[in-house]
């Protein structure tokens, strides 16, 4: 595959720029916002300001990770891109179970039906109504990946069904898969189930793994080919950045620099400068990148994290040659 579908149309690896691999630009309603009003990110104007800081810091593609039923708004994502020139990857799929009411349709429909819904989002266009209404109204923009979510230490029965549906979507379209891990747990089990469903680990991004900053666990997941996504920079409530920097160094020194990705995951008003909060969506690039350089990370190591590894997850032929040959084969 040579291009990926974004809010600004299909883009090749050379057009991605530095990738924010896990972000939330719009959370426009849904049970998520009812549960926690700080998650309400419904303003295009505020998002344009915040993404402006990201662009000014040299940022490129943003992977938005709020799928069905959790306040996704495809038209607002497109509006942000049109105002800023920053491309956004539109998610399809599902957030973790606690963000849905227990009667959400994901629990009722079977694997094949859900796979059909995912495939249509990936090949025809993302539904503006998020499959929450009887009317499907497809955007001209297609979804770029499928998200599934594990729970703390376990994979619940509905999640297993959604993973199998995501596997069908991957087999039909070659789409990448993004996995929410709860506190970085159940990574091996999630990879096992995805592999059984036909998704090679090299096309799976495991999100939030740095909530469990354990290099032994991460090296084992990376040895299987999985991409490890970290997002605690600047969010000190989770852990000091020194722990994260040490973890990244250890993972790279263990030989897995081609598996690391960074995201902001700034899914709260209180994280955004545009709402008077911090550290801001651009922090991972305008501040944390500088710290990594000061702590001895090389340009090649940073290029891998920001551009080459995301391109490989997306199934694109990276513009710089670093991918191990077996991963290239797996993503072909
Ligand atoms: Zn997130």
Automatic annotation (TrEMBL):
<feature type="modified residue" description="N6-carboxylysine">
    <location>
        <position position="147"/>
    </location>
</feature>
<keyword id="KW-0479">Metal-binding</keyword>
<keyword id="KW-0614">Plasmid</keyword>
<dbReference type="Pfam" id="PF02126">
    <property type="entry name" value="PTE"/>
</dbReference>
<comment type="similarity">
    <text>Belongs to the metallo-dependent hydrolases superfamily. Phosphotriesterase family.</text>
</comment>
<keyword id="KW-0378">Hydrolase</keyword>
<dbReference type="InterPro" id="IPR032466">
    <property type="entry name" value="Metal_Hydrolase"/>
</dbReference>
<protein>
    <submittedName>
        <fullName>Phosphotriesterase-related protein</fullName>
    </submittedName>
</protein>
<dbReference type="InterPro" id="IPR001559">
    <property type="entry name" value="Phosphotriesterase"/>
</dbReference>
């Amino acid at each position: 595959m040579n291009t990926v579908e974004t809010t600004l149309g299909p883009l090749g690896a050379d057009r991605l720029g530095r990738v924010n691999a896990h972000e939330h630009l719009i959370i426009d309603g849904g049970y998520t916002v009812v549960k926690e009003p700080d998650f309400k990110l419904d303003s295009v104007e505020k998002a344009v300001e915040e993404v402006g800081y990201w662009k000014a810091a040299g940022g490129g593609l943003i992977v938005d990770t709020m799928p069905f039923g959790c306040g996704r708004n495809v038209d607002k994502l497109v509006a942000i891109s049109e105002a800023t020139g920053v491309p956004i990857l539109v998610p399809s799929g599902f957030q973790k179970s606690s963000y849905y009411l227990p009667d959400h349709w994901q629990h009722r429909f079977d694997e094949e039906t859900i796979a059909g819904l995912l495939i249509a989002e990936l090949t025809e266009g993302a539904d503006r109504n998020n499959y929450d209404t009887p009317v499907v109204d497809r955007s001209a923009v297609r979804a770029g990946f499928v998200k599934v979510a594990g729970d703390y230490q376990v994979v619940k029965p509905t999640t297993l069904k959604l993973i199998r549906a995501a596997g069908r979507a991957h087999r039909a379209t070659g789409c990448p898969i993004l996995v929410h891990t709860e506190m970085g747990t159940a990574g091996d089990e999630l990879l096992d189930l995805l592999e059984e469903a036909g998704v090679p680990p090299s096309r799976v991004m495991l999100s939030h793994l740095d909530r469990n900053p354990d290099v032994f666990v991460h090296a084992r997941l990376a040895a299987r080919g999985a991409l490890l996504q970290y997002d605690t920079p600047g969010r000190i409530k989770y852990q000091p950045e020194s722990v994260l920097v040490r973890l990244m160094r250890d993972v790279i020194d263990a030989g897995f620099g081609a598996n690391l990705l960074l995201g902001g995951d700034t899914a709260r008003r209180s994280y955004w400068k545009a709402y008077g909060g911090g550290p801001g969506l651009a922090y991972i690039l305008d501040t944390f990148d500088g710290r990594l350089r000061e702590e001895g990370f090389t340009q090649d190591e940073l290029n891998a994290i920001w551009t080459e590894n995301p391109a490989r997850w997306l199934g694109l032929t990276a513009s710089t040659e670093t991918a191990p040959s077996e991963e290239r084969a797996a993503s072909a």
